[in-house]
Specification:
The complex is a heterodimer of chains A (358) and B (160).
Chain A lengths: L1 H16 L2 H10 L7 H38 L15 H11 L10 H19 L16 H10 L1 H11 L3 H23 L2 H7 L4 H6 L4 E2 L3 E2 L6 H17 L11 H4 L9 H6 L13 H28 L4 H22 L15
Antiparallel strand pairs in A: 1-2
Chain B lengths: L1 H21 L3 H21 L3 H26 L11 H20 L15 H9 L3 H22 L5
Classes of the chains: A mainly alpha (358), B mainly alpha (160).
Chain lengths: 358, 160
């Protein structure tokens, strides 16, 4: 079998290669053998934290350059190309600029709340990174209910957004925060329910187990990822869209629509605080309206995510093979068709008719 | 190590609770209440009951605190106004505290030294919920569905 030889090859080489970082950490910690246990424990955590922050901050910087470059191309301009080769150092320049900008706090703002809100948001985001399994033996914070931890930490950002909106003591900030929170709450439901089928099928809330459950190949070619099952694919799309809404990304950036409410709950933030709120997004997609977003959440996303749960159950009881694959596809297609028939408001596009202007 | 952590967490929780009860602005009180909940969740973590701690954060900070915030904002116009001390509330709080202390001291289980706390895996909790406690679970589900439909009925457009 070709399969086996490939597998064998991978096992011999990858087994060592994917442990490089783990080995580096062990080597670093070996300097501390004389120290008491709790020092080693703290040092180990610190190593994890530094590695995580370094990797994610540089990734974030790279992504921002990439996004600006691509957006620039889409909009027929060059994008950043002055700082460093190909504008790669742009985030560094931006960071310095943000840091040395004057930190303006509105006179009537609630100083403490205004100050804490961005910190809380950043802290929640970084904490959530902690439970992601990056590789074998490479989950920084192993916990039984890792998935739950991820969402629990994520749900605290709502309060942080509210703090930002209210602490600024500005009605635009407040309105923006209200919109953001309403939107986040609505989309948290499909976000979490779309994760349920995976948890159900694996039978564990631990990210490591979920990853381990998806190893292996079907026909020696297609990885056995849940994304390749009908319920997995549907859940993935729903999860992705909900994630976009949760983080207020472009098509759903209602809370910070400049044309409508200045910059929402970020209005009163200047300099580096502004950067922690992660705003460099200009879109290529038109912004959707707030009522459309809400309708979409409750009338389409929610029923579809429940369908995913049912489809996953069907897949499981039909034997997890080709039969289960087809049956779960059937369930999803049927529900999708019925749902789109129900939601079709029969409003057709037609030439605009003027009553008085002609 | 864990007793130091416990004392720190207890101080944080109690201080935040005190702040929640005494702060003048309603919004500050709500936020301190959220901090109290974080402290309680951390105590659960210390006990090895990670699941309960996480659910506490999830439900109380992610949902209940936000609900309180929305309620305050949507119902009152004088959010920022100072409130005077509420002496009846203080009396009530003391009464509740006294009653609870009395009840706790009456139980015999306080005197029992707890053996090593063993963390229960989430899977066991799930199994218990789906087998021995399946009826309460179903009842809660029914209640939540009813609440969801009720909320929809409340905000439905009235037909003229």
């Amino acid at each position: 079998m070709i399969n086996d030889s490939i597998d064998g090859f991978l096992h011999r080489n990858v087994k060592f290669a994917d442990q490089i970082f783990v080995n580096v950490k062990h080597w670093l910690l070996s300097w501390l053998t004389a120290a008491p246990g709790w020092v080693v424990q703290i040092a180990s955590s610190l190593v994890n934290i530094f590695a995580l922050l370094a990797v994610f901050l540089s990734l974030f910087a790279l992504m921002s350059v990439l996004e600006r470059k691509i957006l620039g191309r889409i909009q027929n301009r060059y994008g950043p190309n002055r700082v460093g080769p190909f504008g790669l150092l742009q985030p560094v320049a931006d960071g310095i600029k943000m840091l040395i900008k004057e930190d303006i706090v509105p006179a009537r703002a609630d100083k403490l709340v205004h100050f804490l809100a961005p910190i809380l948001i950043a802290a929640a985001a970084i904490l959530a990174l902690g439970v992601i399994p990056y590789g074998r033996n490479m989950t920084p914070f192993t916990i039984d209910g890792g998935i739950l931890f991820f969402f629990a930490v994520g749900s605290t950002t709502e309060l942080a957004v509210f703090m930002a909106g209210w602490g600024s003591n500005n009605k635009f900030s407040m309105l923006g925060a209200m919109r953001a929170i309403a939107q986040m709450i609505s989309y948290e439901l499909p976000l979490i329910i779309t994760v349920l089928p995976v948890v159900m099928v694996v039978g564990s809330l631990t990210p490591d187990r979920i990853v381990a459950a998806q190893t292996g190949y079907t026909f020696g070619l297609v990885p056995r990822w849940f994304v390749f099952t009908p319920w997995g694919a549907t859940a993935f799309i729903l999860f992705f869209v909900s994630g976009l809404v949760e983080s207020n990304r472009t098509p759903f950036d209602v809370p910070e629509g400049e044309s409508e409410i200045v910059a929402g709950h970020m209005t009163e933030y200047s300099g580096f605080k502004y950067a922690t709120f992660y705003i460099w997004l200009r879109g290529t997609l038109p912004r959707t309206r707030i009522d459309q977003i809400m309708n979409f959440a409750w009338k389409f996303m929610l029923p579809m995510s429940f369908t995913c749960v049912i489809a996953a159950a069907v897949w499981h009881y039909a034997g997890r093979g080709l039969r289960g694959w087809l049956w779960s596809l059937f369930v999803i297609v049927v529900v999708y068709t019925i749902l789109s028939m129900l939601l079709d408001t029969q409003r057709k596009f037609a030439p605009r008719v003027y009553r008085f202007a002609e | 190590m864990s007793s130091v952590a416990f004392v720190l967490l207890a101080i944080l929780t109690l201080a935040a609770a005190l702040a929640a009860a005494t702060l003048q602005k309603l919004m500050h009180a709500t936020l301190s209440f959220a901090v109290t909940l974080v402290g309680v969740a951390a105590l659960f973590f210390l006990l090895g009951a990670e699941f309960v701690g996480l659910v506490l954060v999830f439900v109380y900070i992610g949902a209940v605190a936000v609900l309180i915030v929305f309620t305050i904002l949507l119902t009152r116009r004088d959010v920022g106004k100072d409130r005077g001390a509420n002496w009846r509330g203080v009396l009530l709080a003391i009464a509740v505290f006294g009653g609870l202390t009395w009840a706790i001291l009456k139980t015999r289980s306080v005197a029992i030294v707890v053996p090593d706390v063993r963390a229960i895996p989430v899977k066991r909790i799930g199994e218990a919920l789906m087998t021995s406690y399946v009826w309460p679970l179903q009842c809660v589900g029914l209640l939540l569905t009813a609440a969801l439909i009720g909320a929809l009925v409340l905000v439905m457009e009235e037909k003229r």
